């Protein structure tokens, strides 16, 4: 369960990090991406462990709220699934259609 939450927070962070304050970005990146402990972050920023914990929990709620309203991450996942289905379908049904293959590749590049 914890690894799923970490993966989700990292993914949401990629989409919404620019909407956060610098401190929120730094704490989240250190905690989730760099795997720092609360104590290590507190020491780095010369604040209490509780202050770091509160900031991270508040930021998690903010990021989840952004996702609830904007759906950037969930839409990205759905588009990826549909793109995979489209690639499979076109490979089976239209294997020699170079134009179709080119369009699919262009869409895939945009998504990446």
TrEMBL record:
InterPro entries for the chain: RNA_pol_sigma_r3/r4-like, UPF0122, UPF0122_fam_protein, WH-like_DNA-bd_sf
NCBIfam families, alphabetized: PRK00118.1-1, PRK00118.1-4, PRK00118.1-6, YlxM
Protein name, as recorded: UPF0122 protein I6N96_04885
SUPFAM superfamilies in UniProt: Sigma3 and sigma4 domains of RNA polymerase sigma factors (SSF88659)
Keyword DNA-binding recorded: yes
HAMAP family: UPF0122 (MF_00245)
Species annotation: Enterococcus larvae
Record bears the keyword DNA-binding: yes
Annotated family: Belongs to the UPF0122 family.
Function per UniProt: Might take part in the signal recognition particle (SRP) pathway. This is inferred from the conservation of its genetic proximity to ftsY/ffh. May be a regulatory protein.
Record keywords, A-Z: DNA-binding
Gene Ontology molecular function, alphabetical: DNA binding
